[in-house]
Amino acid sequence: MAQQAVAANGVSVRLACAAFRISETCYRYQPALCDENVEIADWLVKLTEEESDWGFGQCFHYLRNVENKGWNHKRVYRIYCELALNLRIKPRRRLNRQTPEPLKEPIKPDQIWSMDFMHDQLSDGRNFRLFNVIDDYRREGLAIEAGFSLPTMRVARVLDQLLEWRGKPTAIRCDNGPEFISHEFVSWAQKREIRIEYIQPGKPQQNAYIERANRTIRYSWLSKHLFDSLEEVQDYATKWLWFYNHRRPHKANGGKPPLMAA
Fold this sequence. Notes:
InterPro entries: Integrase_cat-core, RNaseH-like_sf, RNaseH_sf, Transpos_IS3. By secondary structure, the chain is α/β, with parallel strands linked by helices.
């Protein structure tokens, strides 16, 4: 109001400040970090548009650990709220449930791999499956294989390809699906001296690492895009897996991508 009075009515700065009871220092104040705040806002808008499932934590960890920006989290969160980005997702009502048994945290790479299947549809209505494998140590994604049918021998072939460049794990954690309890798969694991850790039926929390990875895959890209062919699915999955391991922050790694974590 003081600035408007000076500009419109030709009132002196001293008189305007006295009339509105503010100091001349306040009147002449210019935010020193204005340009930097604009840069932060641009980054937040860009990230939330490209990755609509990311909240403030993921955005801040990406800026801090991937882009190496040294901005304070309080400052970034203030701008995040000023842009109303904290109101994008309606919070869901949570139900009270029993606390699942905690998983044993791996202490080195290739100690335990987790694997599971997902289902979705192409644009023409045909169903397809995804076979996902992760290393539990840093939640590193190892493979995403797409197919209309993924029988036991196809699963074994994907795992053999991983063993060629990765080395074998001590154990593999999976559910009790028909592909995993078959004689062919059990024989495959025994020949390679890999232990199979089956979870209890109806207890998906015992395979929580891969279940969380499945949720990330679902909401990050699988539910956002409609694919016309299986080749499109596999090509996108391969590119996204690289992004997941190299660029996407993960809270389990202190906000760093799996391959950037110590």
